[in-house]
Amino acid sequence: KIKATKEVCSLAFRNFSLECYSVPSGVSETPNSDEEALFGCHRRIENLQSKLNREVDLIIALEGLTETTPFGVFLYGWATIKHVPSGKIFYGCSGKVMLPDDITNDLSCDIKLSDLVLKKFTSVSKEDLEQLGTNGILTNKMYTREDEFSTALRCALGSMIAEHNTILL
Fold first, then answer.
1. Distance in angstroms (rounded) separating the CA atoms of residues 139 and 134
2. Would you put residue 129 in left (φ > 0), alpha (ψ -120 to 50) or beta?
3. What is the pLDDT of residues 2-54, one digit of tens each?
4. Average pLDDT in the chain
């Protein structure tokens, strides 16, 4: 998530400083709806903003989730960006990776998806999972966690740029 954020911010801004925080979301380990995931992003933003003792321009929150549809269960992520000076919030969503049945059968709101993947795919190391994400493991590195959140961040920042009718480069 951090690598994706640095990469996308370097594309959008000439100069920026990035600080990363682990902030509670108040939602399930693996949210299972857009509403829950976005609520978690809002909670992260609110929790961080209340603790900051200085002004910042943007606060970014990222949340991965699963969604059950009539066509299968999908894994993807949301980026939520608060433009602090205006108070406006911008959203971006990643592409979706369909989960295999042997994972979806054991999904639970109380279990991290990454823990379930480690249990089901014993050949996958914790280090590989941390680097690639579940989607990177399931797609054999074709669409990694970094790709997921890079896509979501590009969409959210693109919306922000369009809203402000400004080229940030």
1. 9
2. alpha
3. 899 999 888 888 888 889 899 989 898 889 999 999 999 999 999 999 999 88
4. 91
- 150, amino acid identity: S
Q: Report the length, in residues, of the chain.
A: 169
pTM metric for this prediction: 0.90
Residue 11, Cβ neighbours under 10 Å: how many? 13
| pLDDT one-digit tens code per residue, 61-103 | 999 999 999 999 999 999 999 999 999 999 999 999 999 999 9
- CA dihedral (120, 124, 130, 134) positive or negative: negative
